Amino acid sequence: MGQGEASARGTAMEGDCLSCIKYLMFVFNFLIFLGGSFLLGVGVWVLVDPTGFREIVAANPLLFTGVYIILGMGGMLFLLGFLGCCGAIRENKCLLLFFFMLILLIFLAELAAAILAFIFREHLTREYFTKELKRHYQGYNNTDVFTSTWNAIMTTFDCCGVNSPEDFKDSMFRMINQNHMVPEACCQRTSQTGELAYINQEQCLLGNMMFRNNKGCYSAVVDYFELYIYVAGALAIVVLTIELFAMVFAMCLFRGIQ
After folding, report:
1. Which residues are within 8 A (CB) of 36 and not within 5 positions of it... i.e. 6 or more apart?
2. E strands, the chain, where?
3. Which of 71, 78, 112, 131 has the fewest CB atoms within 10 Å around its CB?
4. Membrane spanning segments where (predicted)?
5. What is the DSSP letter of 161?
6. How many angstroms separate the CA atoms of 118 and 113, rounded?
7. pTM
8. Three-state DSSP string of 89-101
9. What is the tens place of the pLDDT at every residue in 54-86?
């Protein structure tokens, strides 16, 4: 009789624990689902917005790429949240297993990205970017992805070259444009009647320091994103931790379902 009561009590506790895991997983994944829906909504709104915001984004390759990253992240979170919610509330083994495999693939991809970033960290140095700029930057050929990306960076961050405008000495840009010391993306601009216009483009292209941006883009970008780099690092650790717990919850619920 005592053994039967202990067994029943243990079964009841196991059922309560399983129920707790189920509802925790549902709430957790519902928040992920809402976050994914929000990001998808923002991305779609930017792409179809009739007020002209779409043209502003399309004119800047960095922002344009960012919109598709937001859409991709939103779609992934939407799918994960949906699978997790349905799998938990319906106690569906198939959905839970699919959710676990998807989380595992994302976790492994993030781990691989971190390892590759560490292996190829020398490609993020000033010297590497300077060498690539001298070799490949053409100045005014916006059909070239490398050139258009650098033009967008220099225009967005009001900078010039990797370290300074001196980076364009002995470069492909100077070979193609022998009369220009720096590209027009390096020229200072001012707002006139709501539009940006060059202060003195002619003097800037001739190398006049008064009318060009003299700060290097490496320092400008690092300074701008310094806070965000630490936030992104902390967020990455939080996301990886959440993914680990999600996989543990999914497996526990999967094994507990009869």
Report:
1. 73, 74, 75, 76, 77, 78, 79, 80, 81
2. 189-192, 195-198
3. 112
4. 23-48, 68-89, 96-120, 228-254
5. S
6. 9
7. 0.54
8. HHCCHHHHHHHHH
9. 555 555 555 666 677 778 888 888 888 888 888
